[in-house]
Amino acid sequence: MKLKATLKQIAKELGVSVSTVSKALNDSPEISEPTKNRVKEYAKLKNYKPNVIGLNLKNRSTRTIGVIIPNILNSFFAKVFTGIEKVADEKGYKVITCISNESLEKEISALEMLSNGTIDGFILSISKEAQKLQQFDHFTSIVNEGTPMVMFDRIADEVNCDKVIVDDFDSAINATNHLIDTGCKNIAMFSTINQLSVSNLRSQGFYKAFEQKGLKVNENLIILTDNVEEFDEKINDFFDKNVIDGVFALDEHTATGTIKIGLRKGLKIPEDLSVIGFADGVWSRRMTPSLSTVSQHGPEIGEVATKMLIEKLESKDEIYNHTTTIIKTELRQRDSTRKILKK
User: Fold this and answer.
1) Contacts of 282 (CB under 8 A, 6+ apart)
2) What is the 3-class SS of 14-47, one letter each residue?
3) For a disulfide at 94, which of 32, 64, 117, 302, Cβ 3.0-4.6 Å?
4) How many CA atoms lie within 13 A of 107 on its CB side?
């Protein structure tokens, strides 16, 4: 069976804009007859099957938002989606969701599929593979074609669009200070997301907290990996070789894994070992002892991102300044750390 071409592919082959192709297929008077015929003949040759929405790419709102999430099993992304859906429903918008599964190829495929006139704009968080390879051209192309986009959590500074992030750097400083202020002397930092932009910011915050206290980080207590398998292998005998009484975990896997292996080694938590994680999933609350975490307020991020996108979609302004909104996090003290009473 012949593959169906997209508006974007036809435009590229003919050396014209996506808008020109859309208007030509829709018999717009703005397009000359020779150009219309050329586009229509090529579209027929390439088995292009227009959809009703796609033909009105520039002229009609679909009132539909495309959402691309890296991993639906991650509780943070699930929480963000609840915020997106809540505001979209209130504003009368539908939501189409795709999961990239951390794959650059799937991310590109989802963008191409939805940008063919199916949606009015995107809300998304970048896949692990795209950030690792630093490949963001697929986002830039969509933005340049005039489709509004709001990135959240994992972002790319190179892409000129609205963004919603949390204060990862400051949150890491606060979490590390909590460990120091409760008496931890040998503090480790663990990560399985080292290739992500958020990991870099959290790591910088960890080092900054030590610097502000006039202390020095023990580099032997740092494990920064790109995946859970590598971390699980490295942590296996880590406690046998090192004295640790505190851990700042940059993701939920390293946090929960640290508690499990600490208990297996006979350590009392938080008396012998204090652990703070990042993100606030169901395992953080239900495990024993419960995990102290930096809560990212996922639903709020989703709500803010959706309001930003809809505001742009419904604005009549031709000039729009892109903004970055920072959502404040909260350190939730549970049983894995000694308490600091709130003043």
Assistant:
1) 75
2) HCCCHHHHHHHHCCCCCCCHHHHHHHHHHHHHCC
3) 64
4) 22
Q: Which of 265, 253, 186, 262 is nearest to 225 (CA)?
A: 253
Q: Is the peptide bond before 50 cis (omega within 30 degrees of 0)?
A: no
> For 159-178, what is each residue's pLDDT tens digit?
999 999 999 999 999 999 99
Angle (CA) 281 162 55, round 5°:
105
Cβ(31)–Cβ(23) below 8 Å: yes
- Say how far apart CA 98 and CA 106 lie, in whole Å: 9
Which residues lie below 8 Å from residue 288, measured CB to CB, with a gap of 6+?
A: 335
Predicted local distance difference test score (pLDDT) of residue 30 = 84
**pLDDT of res. 172:** 98
Q: What are phi and psi of 236, to 5 degrees?
A: -50, -45
CA distance 257 to 249: 10
> Residue 5 has what pLDDT?
73
d(CA 330, CA 338): 16
Tokens encoding 6: 């997209």
Residue located via tokens 């000039």 = 319
- Classify residue 72 by its DSSP letter: T
**Given strand 162-166, what is the order of strands in its sheet?**
94-99, 64-69, 121-124, 149-152, 162-166, 324-327
The whole-number pLDDT of residue 4 equals: 59
d(CA 246, CA 292): 12
Q: 121: Cβ–Cβ under 8 A, 6 or more apart, which residues?
A: 65, 66, 147, 148, 149, 150, 309, 312, 313
Segment 240-270, tens digit of pLDDT? 999 999 999 999 999 999 999 999 999 999 9
* Whether the bond into 70 is cis, omega within 30 of 0: no
What are 126's two structure tokens? 């970048």
**Cα 310 to Cα 190: distance, rounded to the nearest angstrom:** 38
